[in-house]
Amino acid sequence: MIEPFFIFKKLHSIEDMECYTGYLPEIAPVKIYESKKVRGRSGRLNMTYGDYDAYEYSIEIQLANFDRLQEVKRWLTGSGKLVLSTDMSKYRDVIVTNSSKPIEFENEDGFFWKFQVTFQSEPFRRYVSENKIALEPNKEKIIHNSGDEIARPLIRVVSRGGNITIDCNDETFTLLNTPTGLIEIDSENGLVIAEGARIKNKGNRPLLATGHNRIKVSGNISEADIVRRCVFL
Q1: What band does 66 get if pLDDT is binned at 50, 70 and 90?
Q2: 133-232 belongs to which CATH class?
Q3: What is the biggest distance separating any 2 CA atoms in the chain, rounded to whole angstroms?
Q4: Mean pLDDT computed over every residue of the chain
Q5: CATH for the 6-123 domain, from 3.40.50.300, 2.40.30.200, 2.60.120.260, 3.40.50.10320
Q6: 38-47, 127-136, 185-194, 198-207: which has the minimum mean pLDDT?
Q7: What pLDDT shows up at residue 40?
Q8: How far apart are CA 124 and CA 135, in angstroms?
Q9: How far apart are CA 102 and CA 161, in angstroms?
Q10: Where are the beta strands (DSSP E) in the chain?
Q11: Per-residue pLDDT for 41 more than 70?
């Protein structure tokens, strides 16, 4: 049986920092609802826009090397990617908050330290490594979103100039009068950029529903690819 561990800011809790943990719980985010009392209606009206809230993730830790306390204190600050041994293929974006309280280090007879660290985690987990998928210009391709929610992909095209259209399922997104060269369509941040300059566009940015999606990139382009950016609860 593998000893539980975690990786934070690219440092392994056991191999690099001599910190041992017990059970690592699995926590899912909660969808945000607005609850309203409507006059003339029994009960309450609950509405959601599909957003999820951040949540706290706590880990009980035992530092085996008594003399490394200051080093561990510096490590467990700030923000970074958190990978758990329960699923090494995915990470969480986290920041150490400890519920806005100081971390209390308990001295165990001068041999080791016991303490708890609490991270505030963004709602979704993401693949640690996700390869780009080639898109053949002017031909439809099926892209599978293996995540639990809508994915907001990064699409890159090498343009030879002119308008470019991206048909994703039943939506069309058009890049207007593109320059030659590499263009990045970042659906997560709502940006279309070529060499640092924004490109005019119209339509709804490409989004990938869970399961299979039809996508086609058309125009005077030499190559294109997509990084799905799948997300998991």
Answers
A1: confident
A2: mainly beta
A3: 72
A4: 91
A5: 2.40.30.200
A6: 38-47
A7: 65
A8: 26
A9: 56
A10: 6-8, 11-12, 19-21, 34-36, 45-47, 55-63, 79-84, 87-96, 106-108, 112-127, 133-135, 141-145, 154-168, 171-186, 191-194, 197-198, 201-203, 211-227, 231-232
A11: no
